[in-house]
């Protein structure tokens, strides 16, 4: 599938912001065999005084911008054309849970896709006994890693209510778990937490999802959203598989990857430090249009 | 291991211990001792010290110890204890130094140099090619699950070519007499400054013995390190700074001390800004480049954008500056990973793999229980192990009790260690439960053996690693020699490395033939802000003290707080939140404490004398607050406090270098004094003011005598106004303050911009001239009101122009 993507993030500050520095992670990645960024552009206004790009640890090209002068609004616009192949889901060659540790221990690498980075706690996903207990209930001895992950994905989808009002961007997995409500970010954190508690390496994927309008309805402009889902390391042969707990499905050609990380803190679309008093308002519009 | 025979004790002469406090000294069974050898005979380097101690009376010895204690107290040496009651604690010195022969020290130093080089290659590999992992030497889990593995720094090569520039090591001596490394400190090693202060204090006690013993000096070590950092500057104008987490930090005193000692700036994260990839310090003269930072802040807090996002003490963009190779940071961000306890288990193999050599100096034997055979070994030998967290960056004897002896009984709610090891091995290490050597400590007038470990410092200089000849010894509080018993805390002693030849007497002072007089560097805005507010708080306290003294003096006579003048002043003070019903009101304490707080933020700019005078004022005020009653008692208390305050002000006035910092402090004082006098005159010189108000004004304005001399009339509205508002020669008049402010402002950086007066300077001039042309009869309450607004306006302007 070929897509034209556009993203607009507009910030409005109560009092003018100065000395603003932001790290922006919104541009889709090129992942051989999975998707290819054909062309992309990023515009920030007011025009930054400084703008650089660097590769982060998980191979995302981060835009770093600095705006010195006072500004009341900040607009970030991304446009990209992306060729998406989706992931190839073949027969399940993933190992049983009990043989996974050996495969992990034999993986002598620290490169970005090494499973070692995706075990244990990460900044936004502390260990959590309740989520661990919840995850262990879906794992039976004869199940493969992929079966366990798929089962957990389905269980979260079934047990949790999608509710954009229930949680915030800094809600912890524990809070969302107790509420049994939340959005894609919460479900993704909970599923990662559950998988890691079983010893299964799991990471965070931020991206875009094409939404299909109901039959007979027009697609609404800007109605799509930034999305998040899980990648699970299913052993050396299978490697990473992406599962979307919000929609209980493997990521397909409608899932466009922006960034990989251990949790939201590694991939947040905008991480910024500004000098400003009072609050800020954010509006977002996303369009995912098949070409 | 030779034990000293219990029976057949040697004669005193044979052992060389004399008949003084060491007479009955003997080592603990099976434990090495620093002073005596295995046969109980004193080691030669100790002989002189012990002979002299033996010749001293108990009174003399106690007098000597008091000298050392007094030095530490007067120098204000303290460290801050986290948690619990917090607060500052005085440095716990053990007066008897630890003496080590130079030859033995050389062996230890060579082992530490090798180790520092090894640590450098490890950290370079972890953040570089990761060969140690790829080649199967270092388990990847140990790095990937490590909170000190900072992914944004992977691939960021330090501009200096080196990650490590300053390290410290905890070393201990085992029963066989050989040294072991207990822990490596690479994050932001503390204690080098304390080692210096320990040295000074100890030599206060034993100056004569120190002079006769060939003890290696510490100064050249610091000098070489300073030179090495200087050589990393990009240009002459670049600054070197010590980066501190701030006054809340445990070792803030030391940060200030080191900065002052080496002549570096002392900065906090908010002092810095990253502009076009360069790290700059905000100063009163604008942004100035910094090219070398000696960081005393843990790496993760250094940059809230790319590291710990909740850090409030970092500098956004710091990591970007490092990627751009614009900054040398000591040690490189991420170096803390070398402190990971489990890493000790892999050092021998890594040394062989990377350098083809064995460690000259062994580490304490360590097994990472994430590996099956290692875990089995620990389980089989658990009674001889200390079990602790694998990823901890704290030494096992210093980790708030997280590490426990394998033989320790299991608590009621605890999971048995064996079970934890089976289930959670990767998070645990087993370490051999080693014992330490002992060194003599004065206990109740006699020397007794106490366990000790050494903290030794290594600095990278232009000629490679240099080991500080000395350091300090941590001394356990009891006679339990198990290293883990050091958890209980203890004392610190100086370490003397004794040569048999005279030693070089280095000093950090420049020699006469190539000195240069450079102007002080640009004042950081935050320091200027603290100086300005220190000036204001000090003056605000003085103002309050003077009015309160006048009030309580009159109250003592009238005994009626409702007397019109007293009631009026009570009302006036209430508006300033100052209460006349208590002898020493709470608000006064708050002002004085605020002055102390401002001063504590700039400790590197204060002489110990000034600091002592200020804290003494605060302590006295607090004590008075407890019991002083209104009236006579309070009048007397205010007089004492005023005298102490004048003492502080005098010390500052007599000793502070007349440069930018001085100007901000002065402007703060003048501004506050001007405000105080303006408000007071506006109220008490009004025509409807109660009887006695004018006399009180003169008293508060310390101008009774002058008034009597200068005007041949009794106090009258116009004469008092003339003297206290408009007399340019009266150091308490409003006009005098404005005159001084104007003079100081002219000398500030950027007072002239593009050939024109800065807006701030222009406004200062306007307010000053506006008052200078008035006459006493023109001074109406409305004029005072406007003047008060103008003074507040100047305060806002100075903040906007220089302090932001």
From TrEMBL, chain A:
Q: What InterPro entries is this protein classified in?
A: Bac_transglu_N (IPR013589), Papain-like_cys_pep_sf (IPR038765), Transglutaminase-like (IPR002931)
Q: Which SMART domains match?
A: TGc (SM00460)
What residue stretches are annotated with the Transglutaminase-like domain? 176-247
- Name-wise, this protein is Transglutaminase family protein
Automatic annotation (TrEMBL), chain B:
Q: Which domain of life is it from?
A: Bacteria
What is a single Pfam family found in this protein's UniProt entry?
CP_ATPgrasp_2
Per UniProt, residues of the DUF403 domain are 523-803
**Which InterPro entries does the entry mention?**
ATP-dep_Glu-Cys_Ligase-2, CP_ATPgrasp_2, DUF403
Name all Circularly permuted ATP-grasp type domain ranges: 97-475
Designated name of the protein: Circularly permuted type 2 ATP-grasp protein
